[in-house]
Specification:
Radius of gyration: 25 Å
Largest sheet: 9 strands, mixed
Number of strands: 18
CATH class of the largest domain: Alpha Beta
Helix content: 25-40%
CATH architecture of the largest domain: Alpha-Beta Complex
CATH superfamily of the largest domain: Spore Coat Polysaccharide Biosynthesis Protein SpsA, Chain A
C-alpha cells in the first residue's frame, strides 16, 4: 500500500508530457490518471483516463476517490501548469503523510517565470483557513483512506465546489499539514500582480461559483458547531449622548496626492444632520500635515488629530478617532485614497442604520483609476451577502466590502485591531457574531487604484503575511462561535 495513485486535471494536450514521464518513472507511483472532459487522443503508457464534467465537481471528487483504492496515497494536481518534482519529492510527501497520519499534506514550491526560478512559500493551515481560495499550491497529497472517507461523507453534489468540500471534510479529522520545503517547480499560467488577482472572487461572472462555495462552508460550519442561526442581539440607538449624528474617520499617512480630495468629498455631503470629519494623521512626513492644517482652517467641522503614540496602525488610528470626544453616534469610513461618490452618501448610510436596525453598515464601491475612469471589476457590491447567512459566509470570503460604518457604542466596546491590514475584517467578524450587519448595494464611493495603494503589488511573502493574519482572525472567530453555541446549549 505504500504506493501513490496520481490524478491530474487535463484539458490542454502536451502540458503534462514531461510530468507524466517523471511520475511513470517513479517506483512509488502505482497509477497515473488524467481527468477531464475529453480524453486525449493517445493516453500515455501507464496512464488511465477518468471522464468528468471538466470541473473539479463533487462528482469528479467521487470518481477520484473510487480510483484511489489500491494505493495508500493519492496525489491530486488541480491546475494545468507545467510541474517538475524535486529530488526525492514524492518520498518526502509520503514520509510526512505517513509519519503524521494526517489526511492531507501540501508543500512550498518554486515558480519558474521567463526562465527565472523563485521560491513560492505557502502558509500553514489553521482551523480558520476557511476561504475557498486558500493557496495550497497545485499539488495536494492525500491519505487514500482519508480521501475516500471524506468523499463518501459529502451529501450535496456541487458543480464547482468539489475540492473545497473535500478539504473541508478532511480538515474535520485534522488540519492539513504544510511541508515548508520547495518540493516541486511550477511554470504558472496566471502571472498577474496581487492587486489584480485580489478582486477575482467578486467578479459577477463568478457568482454561481460563490453561491456553491457558501453552501459548502455552511454545511461545514454546521458539522463542526460553528454555524450561527439568524438570531441577533437588538440595537437601541439611544446609548449615550453625542456631539453630532455622524463622524467620518480618515486615518492618513503620507497621502499628499489624495488627502485633500478625500476631505473635500466629505465636506460636500448634504445630510440634514450635523456631522464632522475626524482625520487621524499618523505622523506624516510629506506635505499631508500642512495640507490638512490649511483645510482645517477652511472647514470648522474638520478635526485634525495627531496622536501622541507612534505605534499605531490603521486600526489604532481608528480607535483614536472612535474614542475621540467629538466622535458622533455613527463612525463612517473613508480611506485617504478614495472619494464619496455622491453628495448624499453619508445620509444614505445613517438612514440604513435606522431602517435595518443594525450595528454596522457596509456599502458598495466602484473601482476607478486615478482619473476616475471605471476599471475592472467595476462595482464591487458583495451581493453574496444575505441577512440570514451573511455572518456565516463571512468566514469564507476575504473581506466584507466598503465603505464601512459603525454604531459608535458597539465599536467602542469591541475596538479595532491595531494593524494596517485586515483590521476592518476582524472587527466586522466580531460584530457579526452578535449583531446584524446592514447593506447598501449601490456604490457609495470611488475606490481609486494607483501605484501607491498598499495592496497594489505585493510580494508572495507579503501576501502570505496578510493571508495568515486573516486566517488567524477567522480562527479566533470560529473558536468564539463554537464556544458561544456550546454556552447556549
Amino acid at each position: 500500500m505504500n504506493k501513490i495513485n496520481c490524478f491530474i486535471s487535463y484539458s490542454t494536450p502536451g502540458v503534462w508530457d514531461e510530468t507524466l514521464l517523471e511520475l511513470n518513472a517513479s517506483s512509488l507511483v502505482n497509477r497515473v490518471y488524467l481527468f477531464g472532459r475529453e480524453q486525449p487522443g493517445a493516453v500515455a503508457e501507464g496512464c488511465g483516463f477518468i471522464k468528468t464534467d471538466g470541473r473539479i465537481s463533487t462528482d469528479t471528487i467521487r470518481k477520484i476517490a473510487d480510483h484511489s483504492n489500491g494505493a495508500g496515497y493519492a496525489m491530486v494536481i488541480t491546475s494545468e501548469s507545467k510541474i517538475h518534482f524535486g529530488l526525492l519529492a514524492l518520498e518526502r510527501f509520503m514520509e510526512v503523510a505517513s509519519g503524521t497520519g494526517v489526511g492531507m499534506v501540501y508543500s512550498d514550491y518554486f515558480d519558474m517565470v521567463e526562465g527565472k526560478l523563485s521560491g513560492h512559500p505557502v502558509i500553514d493551515y489553521q482551523v480558520g483557513s476557511l476561504r475557498d481560495d486558500f493557496e495550497f499550491g497545485p499539488v495536494l497529497f492525500f491519505n487514500s483512506h482519508a480521501l475516500m472517507h471524506a468523499a463518501g461523507a459529502i451529501r450535496e453534489s456541487l458543480e464547482f465546489a468539489g475540492m473545497y468540500q473535500l478539504r473541508l471534510k478532511v480538515s474535520q479529522e485534522g488540519v492539513p499539514v504544510r511541508i515548508p520545503e520547495y518540493l516541486y517547480t511550477v511554470e504558472p499560467v496566471d502571472t498577474r500582480i496581487s492587486g489584480k488577482k485580489m478582486f477575482d472572487y467578486v467578479d459577477p461572472k463568478n457568482r454561481e461559483v460563490q453561491v456553491e462555495m457558501e453552501k459548502a462552508v455552511t454545511v461545514h460550519l454546521k458539522e463542526i458547531g460553528g454555524y450561527l442561526e439568524p438570531q441577533f442581539d437588538s440595537i437601541s440607538f439611544d446609548e449615550g449622548e453625542f456631539p453630532v449624528e455622524a463622524s467620518v474617520i480618515i486615518p492618513v499617512l503620507n497621502r499628499e496626492k489624495t488627502v485633500a480630495d478625500a476631505i473635500d468629498s466629505v465636506m460636500l455631503q448634504e445630510t440634514g444632520f450635523d456631522f464632522n470629519l475626524i482625520l487621524v494623521d499618523n505622523h506624516s512626513t510629506d506635505r499631508t500635515t500642512s495640507i490638512v492644517k490649511e483645510l482645517a482652517e477652511k472647514y470648522t467641522n474638520l478635526i485634525h488629530v495627531i496622536p501622541e503614540r507612534r505605534d499605531l496602525g490603521i486600526g489604532g488610528c481608528w480607535n483614536v478617532g472612535v474614542h475621540h470626544p467629538q466622535c458622533g453616534k455613527f463612525a463612517v469610513q473613508l480611506d485617504s485614497d478614495d472619494l464619496y461618490k455622491e453628495k448624499d452618501t453619508l445620509k444614505q448610510i445613517v438612514v440604513a442604520f435606522y431602517e435595518q436596525q443594525c450595528a454596522m453598515v457596509v456599502g458598495a464601491y466602484q473601482m476607478t483609476n486615478f482619473k476616475l475612469e471605471e476599471i475592472p471589476p467595476g462595482v464591487v457590491d458583495h451581493k453574496e451577502w444575505t441577512p440570514e447567512n451573511g455572518r456565516n459566509n463571512a468566514l469564507r470570503i476575504n473581506g466584507l466590502g466598503a465603505p464601512r460604518a459603525f454604531y459608535t457604542p458597539v465599536l467602542r466596546k469591541i475596538n479595532v485591531p491595531n494593524v494596517s491590514y485586515g483590521e476592518d475584517y476582524g472587527v466586522g467578524l466580531a460584530i457579526s457574531r452578535h449583531y446584524q450587519i446592514g447593506r447598501i448595494y449601490n456604490p457609495l464611493y470611488l475606490c481609486r487604484r494607483w501605484e501607491d495603494n498598499s495592496d497594489a503589488s505585493l510580494t508572495v511573502e507579503a501576501q502570505n503575511r496578510h493571508n495568515t493574519y486573516k486566517d488567524r482572525l477567522r480562527s479566533f472567530e470560529l473558536i468564539a462561535r463554537i464556544k458561544l453555541n456550546r454556552e447556549r446549549g
